[in-house]
Amino acid sequence: MVKRLLLVDDEAAIVEALQDILSDEGYAVEAAFNGEEALQRLHAARPDLMLMDLMMPVMDGRELLRRVRQDPSLHDLPVVVMSAGRITDEERQAASATLAKPFELEVLLETLQKHLPEPESGT
């Protein structure tokens, strides 16, 4: 079964590049450009993992992460946080994993594989 990812970042170039890369790796990737949009998408159809930036407009990643962890229907969702800024100890504890931008593609893929089973081929 194909694993579904929600990618949350306000930088369109990053979203486009990661969508292409992750789709080529066999993931189904949906995008949101801020925390508010991400929450709507999470409640409409829960993904297998959320890959999110911290610095975004409307609702930043810190608030999104806090709300996800407080929501009984989402609190166990694997969340990989990526940021070019400082990631606090509290955010590290709330996230399943953290990545400092810029990161190597191999590190991202290894992190996803650690928190999700490999997608099955042919599905």
Radius of gyration: 13 Å
What is the succession of H and E elements? EHEHEHEHEH
The CATH superfamily bears the name Response regulator
- Overall geometry comes to globular
The tally of domains stands at 1
- Count of alpha and pi helical runs: 5
Strand order of the largest sheet: 2-1-3-4-5
Low-confidence stretches: none
Count of individual beta strands: 5
Average predicted local confidence, pLDDT? 90
What can be said about this structure in brief?
The protein has 123 residues and is an alpha/beta fold. It has a single domain, classed as Response regulator (Rossmann fold).
Structural write-up:
With 123 residues, the chain is α/β, with parallel strands linked by helices. It has one domain (4-115): 3-Layer(aba) Sandwich (Rossmann fold), CATH 3.40.50. The chain has 5 helices and 5 strands; from the N terminus they run βαβαβαβαβα. It has helices spanning 12-24, 35-44, 61-70, 89-94, 105-115; strands spanning 4-8, 28-32, 49-53, 79-83, 97-100. It has a 5-stranded parallel β-sheet. Helix 1 (12-24) links the parallel strand 1 (4-8) and strand 2. The chain is globular, with a radius of gyration of 13 Å.
Keywords:
5 strands; Sig_transdc_resp-reg_receiver; single chain; 123 residues; phosphoprotein; 5 helices; five-stranded parallel β-sheet; alpha/beta; Bact_response_regulator; Response regulator receiver domain-containing protein; 20% strand; Rossmann fold
Q: Any chance you could write out the topology, listing elements then pairs?
A:
Blueprint: E1 4-8, H1 12-24, E2 28-32, H2 35-44, E3 49-53, H3 61-70, E4 79-83, H4 89-94, E5 97-100, H5 105-115
Helix pairs in contact: 2-3
